[in-house]
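Q: what sequence does this backbone want?
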């Protein structure tokens, strides 16, 4: 019954915001054109299509808002104007009652928050579609933030996902162009993404990994601060972490008042991003201003603070090498190399002509290089490259789409801090050093160090294994005898089959002669 009424509500909202017109306008069929004229009733919608879709998703509730946010990252699939508008979606969700929050914490951790903590703020400091956050103080005096999953979220998500799958299948059947957008695949990715966010232990693990990557001894603890996970107060529905103090990165006036070097802050943000991507292959993939703060404490002044670790990206060594070589080829305007990298990666069909792909890449990049470097958007270049790749049936890897979305966030954040930020100039030396370390003597030494523990176990065994192999009896004569025996057996089998074939042939001849004589 709930599903039926929910479907009716979705249809009502879709009609209210003229989403039917949005769908019909994408169907290239005479019947669709006729229906479109009827729907419009002689007038076009007042709001742009992206705005209508964004407002409709906000009206449908937090799950659809979250879906729109995820959809905005798929700029390789949806029109750019819609993607830009969907990126404006925010989780504006009222907090759920504090007594429910306390009950959820007690159910997850086995005791009430007033017992677990020395102090627990009943009023949440932040509330989003999936969870809300309360400040608290541990009995040892440490200040913490407690993230609590919204009650009943799993059931709500499952019901709305069922409807989304049905709608995606309907759209895919109705619109031929929609099949290229792969709506069912997008919903499947959203399903995985949502269920990952429902597991706060996973988020806590992401936080712990990122903190370790920028911890003491890494040589980069001065770049990024990540809260410490308080594991004894964590469960799948509760995530307790160190409370962080700072200024939101978007509040430039407060940053300047705290005597923070804004231009240096912009360059550091780019360095943090490329360090996560190319050194660690593990990056915070939700680096919008709401999740990034800057420390104003005297001992850590100007250091970035990362929050909200529900979305992270991972890259393999192959991905890192592919991206680094692509970026360097862009910097050097070596479009043939970019085309070769696409073909070598296997993401382009084998019958793709290298010259055609090179020409398409050149058409993407050359207009950007004619501008001053400070005006070039690396994220937009990557986006245009993904869009151009459709012509060549390139299957864009999900991790690279997530990377492109994060790069756009980082670049936008950096340009907001410093409008003259030259992202290319900041990134190029880092990528060149990374490639030098990877393929030079330093990289060889690092890989040998990594494999040393395995070789330390194998090397002592080599003399014994060599001696055992040399001391093994010569099995050559025995093998030759066995092969000779098999050869003779095969010959006997062949002769027997020849005799049987002759007998069968004679029998068939006699039978045919008898039948002929009888007739």
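A:
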């Amino acid at each position: 019954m709930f599903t039926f009424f929910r479907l009716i509500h979705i249809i009502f909202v879709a009609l209210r915001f003229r989403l039917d017109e949005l769908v019909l306008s994408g169907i290239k069929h005479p019947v669709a054109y006729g229906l479109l004229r009827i729907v419009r009733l002689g007038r076009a919608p007042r709001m742009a299509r992206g705005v209508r879709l964004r407002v409709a998703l906000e009206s449908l509730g937090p799950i659809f808002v979250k879906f729109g946010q995820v959809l905005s990252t798929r700029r390789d699939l949806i029109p750019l104007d819609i993607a830009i508008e969907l990126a404006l979606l925010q989780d504006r969700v009222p907090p759920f009652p504090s007594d429910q929050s306390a009950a959820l914490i007690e159910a997850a951790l086995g005791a009430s928050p007033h017992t677990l903590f020395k102090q627990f703020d009943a009023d949440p400091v932040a509330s989003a579609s999936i969870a809300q956050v309360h400040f608290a103080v541990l009995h040892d005096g440490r200040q913490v933030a407690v993230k609590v999953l919204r009650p009943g979220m799993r059931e709500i998500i499952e019901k709305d996902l069922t409807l989304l799958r049905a709608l995606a299948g309907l759209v895919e059947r109705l619109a031929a162009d929609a099949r290229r957008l792969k709506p069912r695949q997008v919903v499947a990715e959203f399903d995985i993404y949502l269920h990952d966010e429902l597991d706060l232990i996973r988020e806590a693990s992401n936080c712990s990994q990122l903190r370790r990557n920028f911890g003491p001894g890494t040589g980069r603890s001065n770049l990024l601060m990540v809260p410490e996970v308080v594991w004894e107060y964590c469960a799948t529905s509760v995530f307790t972490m160190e409370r962080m103090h700072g200024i939101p990165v978007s509040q430039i006036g407060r940053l300047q008042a705290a005597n923070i070097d804004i231009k240096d802050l912009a360059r550091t943000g780019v360095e943090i991003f490329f360090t996560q991507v190319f050194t660690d292959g593990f990056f915070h993939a939700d680096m919008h201003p709401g999740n990034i703060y800057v420390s104003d404490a005297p001992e850590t002044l100007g250091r970035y603070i990362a929050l909200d670790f529900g979305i992270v990206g991972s890259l393999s060594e192959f991905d890192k090498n592919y991206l680094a070589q692509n970026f360097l080829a862009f910097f050097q305007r070596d479009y043939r190399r970019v085309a070769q990298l696409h073909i070598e990666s296997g993401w382009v069909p084998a019958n793709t002509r290298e010259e055609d792909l090179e020409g398409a890449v050149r058409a993407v990049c050359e207009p950007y290089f004619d501008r001053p470097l400070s005006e070039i958007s690396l994220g937009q270049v990557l986006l245009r490259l993904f869009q151009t790749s459709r012509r060549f049936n390139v299957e864009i890897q999900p991790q690279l789409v997530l990377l492109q979305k994060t790069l756009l966030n980082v670049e936008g954040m950096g340009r907001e801090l410093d409008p003259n930020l030259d992202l290319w100039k900041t990134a190029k030396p880092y990528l060149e050093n990374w490639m030098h370390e990877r393929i030079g003597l330093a990289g060889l030494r690092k890989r040998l160090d990594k494999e040393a523990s395995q070789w330390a176990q194998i090397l002592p065994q080599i003399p014994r294994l060599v001696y055992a192999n040399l001391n093994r009896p010569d099995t050559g004569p025995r093998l030759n005898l066995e092969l000779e025996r098999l050869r003779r057996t095969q010959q006997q089998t062949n002769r027997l089959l020849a005799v049987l074939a002759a007998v069968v042939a004679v029998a068939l001849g006699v039978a045919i002669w008898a039948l002929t004589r009888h007739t």
